[in-house]
Amino acid sequence: MDNSLPPADELVLVDRELARLDARRSQLLTRRAWLVRALYAPAAPAAPGPRPPVADSTPRSAQNVLLTLGGTLLTIAAIAFTLVSWGSMGIGGRAAVLFLVTSAALAAPVALLRRGLVSTAESVAALGLVLMVLDAYALHRVALPGADGLGYTAVAAAVLAGGWTAYGSALSRLRIPLPAAVVAGQLPLPLGVLAAGGGPTAFAWAALATAAADGAVILWTRPAPVRITAAVGAAALGGWALLTGGWLSLVSPWSGAPLLLAAAAIALYTAWRTSAAAVAGAVVAGLAVVTAAGGLLRSAVSSDWTVPVYVLCGLAVASVWLTGRREAPPEARGRRALPDGVRLGLACAGAGAAALGVVWALPPVAAGLLGPMARTTGVWSGEHAGRPLASFPGTAALVLAVAAAVLAAVPRLWARCGALALAWALLTALPVALGLPYAATLALQLLTTAAALAGAVRPGPLTRGLRRPEAAPEAGAAGAGRPEAAPDDPAAPAAPGTPWAAWAPSRPRPRASGAEAGTTLGRIAYALGLGSAVSAVALSLDVRGATFATLGVLLLLLGGAAAFGTGARRVVAACAAVLTATGLVVASAAAGGFEDHWTALALLGVTAATAAVGAKARPVALPVEITGAVVALPAFALAAPRPAFLALTLALGGVVAAATAVRPERRRFASWTAAVLFLLAAWVRLAAWEVTTPEAYTLPVTVPALVVGFLRRRRDPEASSWTAYGPGLAATLLPSLLAAWTDPEWPRPLALGLAALAVTLLGARFRLQALLVLGGSVLALDGLHELAPYVVQAVGALPRWLPPALAGLLLLAVGATYEQRLRDARRLRDRVARMR
Question: On the chain, which terminus has fewer CB atoms closer than 10 Å, C or N?
Answer without folding.
Answer: N
